[in-house]
Specification:
Layout: E1 2-4, H1 12-24, H2 27-44, H3 51-65, H4 69-82, E2 93-97, H5 101-116, E3 122-126, H6 130-138, E4 146-149, H7 155-168, E5 175-181, H8 185-194, E6 198-204, H9 210-229
Parallel strand pairs: 1-4, 2-3, 2-5, 3-4, 5-6
Amino acid sequence: MTWTSCPPDPLAWVTWRDLALHLLSTPWLALPLTGLGLGCGLGWVGLRGWGRPSLVLLGMVVLGFLYSPISTAALSQWLDRQRPMATALPTSVAVLVGRGPQIAQATTTLAARLQRDGLVEQVYVSGDSQATADQLLRLGVPSGEVFGDDCARTTWENATRTASWLRQRQPPVLAITLITDRWQLPRAALAFQRQGIAVRPVAVPLPISASEQNHLALRETAATLLYWVQGRL
């Protein structure tokens, strides 16, 4: 196994982003803070009487809808529509992007099966702990076919750092099988395409609760919109 480790180098804005996304995807935090913020804001602009609490309540109801199963389904379907078409080029490398141990359990299982069936030759783990690469070895992927790093801190860095490694191969690898969860897959695939890498996107099914699905749908919708604003997609 070939593994690259980097010293911890947290990005300040990523910390604030993660806090904001955590707040957005945590109803018991977001709803009361929204109500408080609306109440203070409406008071500051001079709104008094029944209109003020009515607008606060309306705002909380609208925000609360984001946490409903209907919202989860709608956001998930919107994200699915952003997923690019799969490349027709052969892909010899499967890429897994860091998403934590629960998702890694599913992605490593699928990657090992694809490698065992001869559909890919090598597996690259981007921006995750070495434990994910070790899991590939336990699943039967030969040590010489496992590569990775724990350096990438964002999905964009997953794409840029992995693309650099792919181009250094002999011959250079220009197409990959990208394996991650349904919600991150569109953004990740588009980020790799921006690096000139053709992608066969593959979503792994996850045994997660409705609230966890909602969390991922909200997080990835916000992150995808942010990448568009930043000109990354």
